[in-house]
Design goal:
The chain is of the alpha/beta class. It has twelve helices and nine strands. The chain starts with a strand and ends with a helix.
Length: about 300
């Protein structure tokens, strides 16, 4: 059985992102979302959940861009003189020991609690720009999963470039051409093994259209869908109706409109049906894993 979670990242970032995700959920293939809880537009989430009760909702943990949920005075190492996150300097500061992990934990806990406070049953965690994969952050990420009883997380067991045939020779060629990806993917796989040992549930693999800027290309999405293997697969997307606020916080702006078109395209839906793919949520994944355990399947 081919099960696919199509997760739209960034709900709550701006009202234009919210609108694009809502369109992609109502008329398209989005089956799950992740919420940036530190922006004002996250207040739309309660209405979204009432409108789309079967869509799973995760928290897109974000200590990188925008204002914090916590009082800036409580987390001085996470914010600049304007009370905003350090943006592109976050990773350097984290790895350089300039961010207090206790303050980071406080802010991320507040983000989770803000979403819970809207009456949302949080299905999974991931993070803005996948920054939680850096070792000082990853241990905290696992603690937060356990503390808040969140069963699922995004896997980072990558299935490299969805347009490649699934063969060992082609996979080896990919890593020869992209040696930095071998290192980052190897670290991510090791972290996913640790997370599973700690009880986290996740899809079998993470697929993406490309890392080269063609995330909104219809043809790439059709290739991706054609290559979805059996089991559980997650793919994330960033649909939006760009507004004036988005360029303040992001460089990936206008292509998000094209992502809405891909998500809502009849051609995309037809390809899913032709390939025998079942769209699902992280709630479905958790139920499937529980059923497998009950049946003695590992």
């Amino acid at each position: 059985m081919k099960n696919l979670i199509v997760n739209a990242d960034g709900y709550g970032f701006t009202t234009g992102i919210n609108r694009g995700i809502e369109l992609s959920a109502e008329h398209g293939i989005v089956s799950s979302i992740s919420v940036n809880a530190n922006f004002d537009a996250a207040e739309d989430l309660a209405a979204f959940v009432r409108r789309f009760p079967t869509i799973s909702v995760g928290v897109h943990l974000n200590p990188v861009v925008g204002p914090p949920v916590a009082d800036p005075k409580e987390i001085p190492t996470l914010v600049d003189s304007k009370g905003l996150f350090h943006a592109g300097a976050f990773t350097r500061r984290l790895l350089g020991g300039k961010i207090d992990v206790g303050q980071l934990e406080l802010e991320l806990s507040r983000q989770i609690e803000r979403v819970r406070g809207m009456g949302v049953s949080i299905s999974h965690l991931d993070s803005h720009q996948n920054r939680h994969l850096y070792p000082p952050f990853f241990s905290l990420f696992l603690r937060l999963l356990h503390r808040y009883g969140i069963s699922c997380m995004r896997t980072h067991a990558h299935f490299p470039r969805a347009e490649l045939p699934r063969s060992q020779r082609r996979l080896a060629s990919f890593y020869v051409l992209h040696p930095h990806r071998f290192a980052t993917h190897a670290l991510a796989r090791a972290e996913m093994t640790l997370a599973r040992r700690r009880g986290a549930l996740m899809a079998d693999r993470l697929m993406s259209t490309s890392s080269t800027g063609d995330k909104a290309d219809q043809g790439k999405w059709l290739q991706l869908l054609q290559n979805v293997p059996d089991g559980w697969t997650e793919v994330y997307c960033h649909p939006a109706m760009p507004d004036d606020e988005l360029p303040r916080w992001a460089t990936y702006v206008e292509p998000r409109r094209a992502e809405v078109e891909v998500m809502t395209s009849p051609e995309t839906r037809d390809q899913i049906e032709r390939c025998g793919i079942a769209l699902g949520s992280f709630h479905d994944l958790a139920r499937a894993r529980a059923a497998a355990v009950a049946d003695g399947v590992t």
